[in-house]
Amino acid sequence: MISHLCAATPVLYILWIAMAQIAAGQEDREKTTALKDLLSRIDLDELMKKDEPPFTFPKTLEEFEYAFNEYGQLRHLKTGEPFVFNAREDLHRWNQKRYEALGEIITQYVYELLEKKCNMTKQILPEERTDDEPTSFIYLSPDALSNPSKLLVLIHGSGVVRAGQWARRLIINQDLDSGTQIPFITRAMEEGYSVMVLNPNENYLEVEKSAMSSPLPSPTEPSDEPAEKRDRKDDKEGKKKREFYEKYRNPQKETETERIPIRENSSSEEHVLYVWDHFVSQAKAKNVFIMAHSYGGLSFVELMNQRETEVKEKVCAVALTDSAHNIWLQETSKGTQDWMQQHCCNWVSSPEPVDTLLDPMLRDCPRVSAGLLFADISL
């Protein structure tokens, strides 16, 4: 009996090892499956935000410790250095939010320059409005409607720029003369022009979204487990999920917002059309000149589509810069195309010397080189 048992011991030992390995393998597989499930639930973007500082930034240039020097360059008050985007390494989203906060201050700074340096006034849009509806605005020189001779209309491109700006990035990284419309406005006024500065990106009022009720749980497949046992299991799994997400949650949730469009100014095209109907067409100037950058050129061509006869009668010349218009996609008439050939010119970024005539891409208006003048102007 003992001899049989001793003889069987190696077999039992091997069987025990095999069973242990199977059990361990099963446990490892369960752990691996659980780990995969856990990893699939991790939002890597959220994980990267875990140690992110609060999105609380200064409200003025002075609080940012920056100021524009006598050359219109943005410099640090203590070090005299240009603006540094990467204020904190490995925190790109926080650096971007900081940059955007500074950009909003720059926008207000440019508005002040339009009002104080250029002596322009803010005109609220739409003209006939209720007290509680969202509004936009443009800037007008004192003689914008009364000057009988010449009127200059400035239209910037798309993106974050607002009235008086060509490119926020150039304002911050180079100087005010490079990124704003101020030099164009002062030069025009010196030569007897009245001026209108449009604001085609101010299209909506952004407000905090009202809290939405939680969605109803989706129906689940029926289970054979007793309800009490199933509830305990669900509670246990739910607790684990909450603990996990609490550990890796984003500590600062960005506020959800919704946009309320501004009546008759909810897009760049609408804005340009509205300003034409209510201001440019009402101005006494016999000669209207328009300068439009990037998407502003597309908005001008759309104005031509809507008010072809009026534009032809009133506008003398149009200077486009890296215009985004497309006469095919915008379905412009042959009459508009012929008029643009004679009255428009599109200066585009090019390594060729300034004013070098370039090959036309479409049959609309001449394209000439602006050198690399507009290469850094972001949309």
Automatic annotation (TrEMBL):
InterPro entries: AB_hydrolase_fold, Arb2, Arb2_dom. Residues 57-354 form the Arb2 domain. Keywords: Signal. One of its GO terms (biological process) is regulatory ncRNA-mediated heterochromatin formation. It holds the Pfam family Arb2. Residues 209-260 are annotated as: Disordered. Residues 1-25 form the signal peptide. One of its GO terms (molecular function) is siRNA binding. One of its GO terms (cellular component) is nucleus. Residues 226-260 have a biased composition (Basic and acidic residues). SUPFAM superfamilies: alpha/beta-Hydrolases. This is Cotranscriptional regulator FAM172A homolog isoform X4.
